[in-house]
Amino acid sequence: MKNQSFIRKLGYALSGFIYAVKQEHNMRRHLVAALLAIWVFAWAQPAAIWWALISLCIALVWAAELINSSLEALIDHLHPQIHPQIKHVKDMLAAMVLVLSIAAVIIGLLALYSCL
Ligand SMILES: Nc1ncnc2c1ncn2[C@@H]1O[C@H](COP(=O)(O)OP(=O)(O)OP(=O)(O)O)[C@@H](O)[C@H]1O
C-alpha cells in the first residue's frame, strides 16, 4: 500500500472525511457550525486576516474531531469492554475538541467585534 499515486491518496482522504460525516453526529454538527460561521462572515465582511484565522480554526476543529473519532473507533475495536483508563483517554480526546472549539468561538466573536 506504499507509494500510491497522489490522486488515489486524495480519494482515501476524501472517503475518510465522508465516512466521518456520515457516521459521527459531532462531525455533522461541526460542519453545520462552519457553514453558519462562513455565512455570518460573508455578511459581516471582516478583514482578510480574520478570514484566515477562522479558516484555520475550522480546519483545526475538523481535524481534532477526525482524530477523536478515529481513535475512539480504534479503541472500541481493540478493547470493547469498559475500562477506567479508556474513560480517561476518551475524555481527553473530547477535551481536545472542546478546547479548539472554544478558541474558534472566541476568534469568531473577536472577528465580528472588529466589524463594529
Ligand atoms: N470503554 C469505555 N470504558 C470506560 N468509559 C467509556 C468507554 N467508552 C466510553 N466511555 C465514556 O463515555 C464517554 C462517551 O463515550 P463515547 O464513545 O460514546 O464518545 P462520544 O464522543 O460521546 O461518542 P459518539 O460519537 O458516539 O457520541 C467517554 O468520554 C467516556 O467517559
UniProtKB/TrEMBL annotation:
EC number: 2.7.1.107
Top-level taxonomic group: Bacteria
Keywords from the UniProt entry: ATP-binding, Cell membrane, Kinase, Lipid biosynthesis, Lipid metabolism, Membrane, Nucleotide-binding, Phospholipid biosynthesis, Phospholipid metabolism, Transferase, Transmembrane, Transmembrane helix
UniProt entry tagged with the keyword Ligase: no
GO molecular function, one term: ATP-dependent diacylglycerol kinase activity
InterPro entries the UniProt entry points to: DAGK (IPR000829), DAGK_sf (IPR036945)
Subcellular location, record wording: Cell membrane
Gene3D superfamilies, A to Z: 1.10.287.3610
Topology versus the membrane: Multi-pass membrane protein
Transmembrane segments: 27-44, 92-113
Homology family: Belongs to the bacterial diacylglycerol kinase family.
Protein name: Diacylglycerol kinase
Organism: Shewanella yunxiaonensis
